[in-house]
Amino acid sequence: MREPPLTPWSWKYPLELRDRAVRMYRAAEPKPVIRRMAEELGVHHEALRNWIRQAEADAGERGDILTTAEREELAALRKENAQLKRANEVLRTASAFFAAQLDPTRPR
Question: 100, 106 in Cβ contact below 8 A?
């Protein structure tokens, strides 16, 4: 399992615990009740449910949520988009400034 990006809420449980819990759930037959399994592991049931969903998406078993790689790519693209917007604003401001400087009708 790939290491997910760190977020403030992902620090509560160690990655080893997350990986082990998902492996245990996926290997079990029949599938255990998530709430009961979470209690046995000492984690919140919604945290375990989200880990399982993400593992299923990463394995290509779910199409309704983004994979970890897609989430990372989306975050990188959003960051790049914000940087490009800032750069465009700087260029737009500089263009207006230099256009005003080069305007022959402008009194000096």
Answer: yes
* Residue 18: exposure state from Cβ atoms within 10 A (0-12, 13-18, ≥19): buried
- Going by C-alpha positions, the residue among 55, 68, 58 that lies closest to residue 18 is 55
Report the C-alpha gap between 79 and 86 in whole angstroms: 11
Tell me the per-residue pLDDT of 4-40, one tens digit each, with 9 for 90 and over.
555 555 568 999 999 999 999 999 999 999 999 999 9
CA distances from 49 to 22, 25, 90 (A): 9, 10, 45
Q: How far apart are the first and last CA of the chain?
A: 67
- What does the alpha-carbon distance between residue 71 and residue 61 come to, in Å, rounded to a whole number? 16
In SS3 terms, 44-79 reads as: CHHHHHHHHHHHHHHCCCCCCCCCHHHHHHHHHHHH
C-alpha 77/C-alpha 72 separation (Å) is 9
Q: Quick check: helix, strand or coil at residue 86?
A: helix
**pTM (two decimals):** 0.69
